Amino acid sequence: MSIPGGIRHLLSVGDLSVSDVEQVMRLADSFAEVSSRPIPKVPALRGKTVATLFFEDSTRTRLSFEAAAKRLSADTMSFTASSSSLNKGESLRDTVETLTAMGVDAMVVRHASAGVPWQVARWTSAAIVNAGDGAHEHPTQALVDCYTLRETTMKQTGSDGGGCFLEGLRVAIVGDIRHSRVARSVSAAFTKLGAQVLFVAPATLLPRPLECKAGQKGAAGADGISCWGMPATWDLDDVLPEVDVVYLLRIQAERMGSACLPSLREYTSRWGLTAERARRMKQRALVMHPGPMVRGVEIAPEVADSARCLATRQVANGVVVRMAVLFFLLGAGSREQPGAIAKENGSSNQPGAIAKENGSSNQPGASAKENGVD
Amino acid sequence: MTRVLVAGGTVVDNRGTRRAEVALEKGRIAAVAPGLEAAGEVQVLDASGCFVLPGLVDLHTHLRDPGLPEVETVASGSRSAALGGFTALVAMPNTDPPIDSAEVVRYVREASKGAAAEVHCAGAITAGRAGERLAALGEMAREGVRIFTDDGAGVQDAALMRMAMEYAAMLGAVVADHCEDRSLAGGGHMHEGRWSSLLGIPGQPSEAETVMVFRDISLARLTGCRLHLLHLSAEASVELVRQARAQGVPVTCEVTPHHLALSDSEVAAFDPVFKVNPPLRTPTDAAALLGGLLDGTVDAVATDHAPHPAQGKELPFDQAPFGMLGLETALATVFTVLTTGRGLSEDVGGFDPLPVAEAMEVIVRAMSLRPARIAGMDGRQGMAVEQGSPANLCVFDPAASWVVDPSRSASRSSNAPLAGRKLTGLVRHTLLKGQAVVVDGELQW
User: Fold this and answer.
1) Minimal C-alpha gap between B268 and chain A (Å)
2) Contact between B199 and A115 using a beta-carbon 8 Å cutoff
3) How far is B207 from chain A (nearest CA, A)?
4) Is B318 close to A113, i.e. CB distance below 8 A?
5) CB B197 to CB A207 under 8 A?
6) Chain B: residue nearest A183 by CA?
7) How far is residue A349 from each of residues A8, A44, A255, A334, measured CA to CA in Å?
8) Helix/strand/coil for A91
């Protein structure tokens, strides 16, 4: 959902244009530099309040957002379902309206039900960031993964990381596509940036109903199917030697209970990235995983620890990319180019005022010179 | 006022269409002829530019009474019905307590004295609607119940359904089923299709409905029991009924206005107002339902009016209850779809629009005559507009254009999917047993 002049919320990867993604990537670059300083903090969102509303267990993502907000000097509030009065019957809407009345500028929402961030956005003027809604989307994860791939390909090819920086890359997303919000967001983001995505999964873990390639009736073999308009296959070994990135999804043990798979062992034998399979990949092909990894199921321990696996970079980049997202939505002149921030005095974030008080400006790059504005 | 003159309209009923005034006296139609004039103490209702039809009969309404009076009552639901041109309703038995005994049937009958429409009950097929053993069908039949259904759920056990049909056939009653195989439906919250795949919401495939349609038709053939299929939503279901009808199986069926007009694309904004069971399906399904309505395979349009409190419809999509309001917008929705050749969702359309007169004939058949017959009311409702008939009439202005506003509804709830949409055709007056319950679009009760 975007409005003329800029983005108000980040609910779905579809909300972002290629140039929006590019802007987020460059912001993340500057925040990565900030994060490497002795005092890794900038006053960019000073005076803003960011609330995390997590109705689903996820300490890692919540902490990643809270760290991001704090490094931008925003105030944070944390609302988790277990400690909330939702258990006492207060409605989701009441919770959102209460937080809005308390003056929250942004809400980062994670919920087990698809669509909640859209519903929340109807009840508040705060900016909403979707941190994962049921099996639907997880746009910030997709941005973290784009940033991680970008940093690797920039090193490999020396490109400047602009525009469609994943052009020509072949990516296989492997695993439980049916229940994965990461699969939907990541495939949309990678495709937007020029990659060719294909899905690999057992038939019972592809989205329903079965989607057949245009003009073909029935599955017609392993290459007769598609998923969200992109190619899909049941056969990992077939495509492995041709892809540049293998993006693995976690297999959840709960899926056994719902009869999607006979056993984890059968999953690993056909779709697990074993050491043997890793040897059949292109030499420079990469492995990604949004975490947490289940070693021995979807990924062999040796492969997880190998140099081609970017999982730790994905985690490391989580905070800076989320800083970029928060700044992109809330920062002074968030609807303008970053370069304009230094000139603006009348914005809601009052960078001009801060500049006068502390002799610094709101621009991340400028803070390096003043050093240590809190 | 025991004498009423409905003047200036065009009468439409099973015998056709003709310009005529309709004079009512003491609850019955006294005369139907052009040029009748008011003489003496007569309430004159202006029907110029309008159609005068037999009052509409809704085979499928949820009145939430007993159980949830803050959501809807017999009284409020009947007022909503009257605004929509309905003079009779069949109330579904998934109340709390359910309508599965003579006592609760009597409660509803008491509660509907003085209501703005005639309220009949359907009784549950199984005790408590639990799907395990038969409810007190004979007792309820003795109280006048003619239709049995566990609506809200389908009878999952085939042997029990067979037993229910054998028993109901003996009583001369109709067994109505909400066709949904629970295991195939898999707890889905919308139609399983391209949209559910894009939105990440678990869906239920059309097959969850059609496997039970097939089963019930087979059992109706086996037992000879009259079967009525509730709220059909899928193309394949209509086709099964078409084939069964050709073979002489005693099956009837209904569709809702929302399944004719809306598609699953409405769920894209994640608003649970569009969450309903059976779910809104594809434009192809909507087109098949309309085709069935036009060729007579689909006997009736029934609203499945399902009030829910606001807090329910503000829950996350997969937690929200299923159901939409429909009584006040049913007639206008069907009329708009038939005469424009388009649904109300952007992707529903491509039908040949009907001329107004033909559309009215379809409406009279599907929203009054046939439902009255299926419900066993055909001595009092859905009758020809002629001397001697009970004066249950709907006066409908086909040219009025209006925007749906749930805050002005007579229902106690406001979960209307068409809120803010423009419809063509408005009920001007509704007469129940010769009394003007709605005059110029305003309730008189």
Assistant:
1) 9
2) yes
3) 12
4) yes
5) yes
6) B200
7) 16, 8, 47, 10
8) coil
- Residue pair B303/B330 in contact (Cβ under 8 Å)? The answer is yes
Name the packing angle between helices A59-71 and A18-35 (round to 10°): 80
Cβ atoms within 10 Å of A209's Cβ, excluding its own: 15
Question: What amino acid positions of B are annotated as catalytic residues?
Answer: 304
Mean pLDDT lowest for which of A56-65, A103-112, B169-178, B225-234? A56-65
Task: Provide residues of B within 8 Å CB-CB of chain A.
Answer: 192-194, 196-203, 205, 269-271, 311, 314-319
Element (H, E) at B295: helix B283-295
The Cα B4–Cα B24 span in angstroms is 5
Report the pLDDT value the prediction gives residue A357, as an integer from 0 to 100.
Answer: 36
Contacts (Cβ under 8 Å, ≥6 apart) of B87: B55, B56, B57, B81, B117, B118, B381, B392, B393, B394, B430, B431, B432
Cβ atoms < 10 Å from Cβ of A59:
9
Distance of alpha carbon B100 from the chain centroid: 21
- What is the pLDDT, as a whole number, of residue A58? 84
* Interchain pair A119, B271: CB under 8 A: yes
pTM of the model: 0.91
Identify the closest residue of chain B to A137 by CA–CA distance: B200
- The ipTM assigned to this model is 0.92
Query: DSSP letter at B365?
Result: I
* Contact at CB, B197 and A137, closer than 8 angstroms: no
Q: Which residues touch A214 (CB under 8 Å, ≥6 apart)?
A: none
Query: Rounded to whole angstroms, how far apart are CA atoms B118 and B103?
Result: 19
Q: How open is the CA angle B165-B169-B173, to the nearest 5 degrees? A: 100
Spell out a b/e string for B3-25, using b for 16 or more CB atoms within 10 Å of the CB, else e: bbbbbbbbbbbbeebeebbbbbe
Ranking A245-259, B134-148, B346-360 by mean pLDDT, the lowest is: A245-259
Structural contact between residues B301 and B330, judged by C-beta atoms closer than 8 angstroms: yes
A136 closest CB neighbour out of B200, B271, B315: B200
CA A339 to centroid of chain Cα atoms: 25
Q: How far apart are CA B152 and CA B250, in angstroms?
A: 23
Q: What is the pLDDT of residues B217-240, one digit of tens each?
A: 999 999 999 999 999 999 999 999
Length of chain A: 374
Strand partners, B18: B11
- The number of residues making up chain B comes to 445
